[in-house]
Design brief:
alpha/beta; elongated; transmembrane helix
Length: about 550
């Protein structure tokens, strides 16, 4: 009896032990399944690829993963090579069966689909080299037809001059010209050899960016030569003028050359929230008001503008799309309409953020102010220099992750040109700091500075001098001479921003790289370096292996 009882107890204990082991095994198996599920979910989010900071919209901020950008640098990379790299990567991603489509934020692209093109515009030659820095982004592009943003610029000597096609009122015609009444003759001569050697460069541009020019009539001047540089031609059906100011002076316009979009938005004040619905530059009743407001309807005219894009891939296709946003703003502060005390860091900050809110821009090229007819006294001249120092500090200290700001030091270049012209052509005593304030008489308003507008003081009268081909009137510029370097500097700066965004993961690294690149652009193009030196360096960089 005792033996049977002991055996029964041992059997029960064995069963309990077996059941316990089974329970433990099942628990471990469930834990293992839970861990595998968690790991899979984590890896699922990390599988999202992008060439910027964007992630799939279903992820939260805590799930965003900054992935390093892999960049292949090259001294010579053609647009066709970029496109082939893009297509190869897209095919690899397709073969890898990516579960999430990548997205793109405002930093680098628009919201519409943009197809690629591999041919030059009609105004460029068959040359396919572009100036350094060049880059190819190997990180996965978005799962759309849009390439990463790019800008290429090509430099030529003046055997390819600009026609000033879109700026009939600002042409610097050589010889004798008269006003619209056939009176007040003005004689204009070509630049002296030294200045010709500086200005002997023409720039043509290829880009898939949407570029917006904001500024006064000088800003419109810069914009109109940009239109020519991307391939715009007279009576171009791809060009639309939505608004005019002062009669037929253009105020709001768009030109599209396949995937390239450039638009103008004339402002006679800073682009500030307080200017909303205030009279714009073309306000009536006589269309001559210098109002500094802006009209939301004009903003929408640009954003809702439709244009067509034709692919060059096989099979070719034509797509109609809308602008919806811009990538870059070229910002000319309308100093001619403003007092210097209104140009403050606070107002510049407000203007740039409003431009981002209204137009979506993420890159801003900000110009320093140049000496002009509005500077009438030594106090105003000193204040102009202080304002430019403030603008330089403002750009250097700018720290905003959404918008990149770069400096085009146009004011410093004008100072160098005016100083040389006054010293060598006019034989003025430039040690006297007020030499720029000596002016032509007989002007009711804004008499031109001799140092800015005159080619020589020989045969000068109180009212006239033989004019140079730097400035039309002491305020506007001869883009036939100066446009090439201005556009080269602008394209160079935009490329600095694009390159820094691709080459570095962190904002501080991007800033340091960008500032160094920005300085090189200004040293090259906003300087008195001979054009031949710059072009020689350009070809050397682009053909070196």
């Amino acid at each position: 009896m005792t033996s049977n009882s002991s055996s029964s107890k041992r059997l029960i204990r064995r069963r309990h032990l077996l059941f316990g082991m089974i329970s433990i095994a099942m628990t471990l198996y469930l834990v293992f399944l839970w861990m595998m599920t968690t790991t899979t979910t984590t890896n699922h989010y990390h599988h999202v690829h992008s060439d910027d900071d964007s992630v799939h919209p279903t992820t939260t901020k805590t799930q965003q993963q900054l992935l390093p950008l892999v960049v292949v640098k090259s001294d010579f990379v053609t647009q066709q090579q970029q496109q082939q790299q893009y297509r190869n990567k897209k095919m690899n991603d397709k073969n890898n069966n990516s579960t999430f489509a990548t997205t793109r934020n405002d930093k680098n692209s628009g919201t519409d689909t943009v197809a690629t093109t591999s041919t030059s515009t009609s105004t460029t030659t068959t040359a396919t080299t572009f100036t350094a820095p060049t880059f190819v982004t190997v990180n996965a592009p978005p799962q759309t037809e849009q390439e990463p943003p790019f800008i290429h610029y090509q430099l030529y000597q003046k055997n390819r001059p600009y026609n000033i096609t879109f700026g009939p009122y600002t042409k610097c015609r050589l010889g004798i010209t008269y006003n619209k009444r056939g009176k007040k003759p003005i004689e204009r001569v070509a630049l002296p050899t030294y200045l010709q050697e500086i200005m002997d460069v023409t720039t043509y541009i290829q880009t898939n960016l949407k570029i917006l020019s904001v500024g006064d009539s000088v800003g419109i001047q810069f914009h109109q030569v940009l239109e020519e540089a991307i391939g715009g031609v007279w009576n171009d059906t791809r060009r639309t003028v939505y608004q005019n100011a002062w009669g037929d002076h253009e105020s709001v316009s768009v030109l599209t050359v396949n995937q390239t979009v450039v638009a103008a938005f004339r402002m006679t004040g800073l682009l500030l929230p307080s200017g909303k619905n205030q009279p714009p530059p073309n306000a009536g009743p006589n269309l001559k008001t210098g109002a500094g407001g802006w009209n939301p309807q004009h903003v929408q005219q640009l954003l809702q503008h439709e244009y067509t894009i034709t692919t060059t891939t096989t099979p070719t296709s034509t797509t109609t799309t809308r602008i919806t946003k811009f990538d870059v703003m070229l910002f000319r502060i309308p100093h001619g309409w403003l007092t210097l005390d209104t140009i403050t860091q606070h107002n510049l900050h407000e203007a740039i953020l409003l431009a981002h809110d209204l137009f979506g821009v993420n890159i801003v090229v900000l110009q320093t102010l140049f000496f002009n007819n509005n500077v009438r006294t030594m106090d105003e001249l000193q204040q102009l220099h202080r304002t430019n120092d403030m603008i330089r500090r403002f750009v250097k200290e700018w720290n905003h992750s959404t918008v990149t700001v770069l400096l085009l030091d146009f004011g410093q270049w004008v100072d160098q040109l005016v100083h040389w012209n006054a010293q060598h052509m006019l034989q003025m005593d430039v040690r006297d700091t007020n030499y720029t304030l000596q002016r032509l008489g007989c002007f009711k308003k804004f008499p031109p500075s001799l140092a800015v507008a005159c080619a020589t003081l020989e045969n000068r009268t109180d009212c006239t001098c033989i004019r140079n081909r730097l400035s039309i009137d002491g305020m506007h510029w001869c883009m036939e001479s100066m446009g090439g370097r201005i556009l080269a500097a602008t394209a160079c700066l935009i490329k600095c921003s694009l390159l820094s965004q691709r080459q570095y993961q962190y904002h501080q690294q991007q800033q340091q790289s960008q500032q160094s690149c920005e300085q090189r652009c200004n040293d090259d193009f906003m300087s008195l370096k001979p054009a031949s030196t710059i072009i020689e360096s350009y070809h050397k960089n682009n053909h070196s292996s």
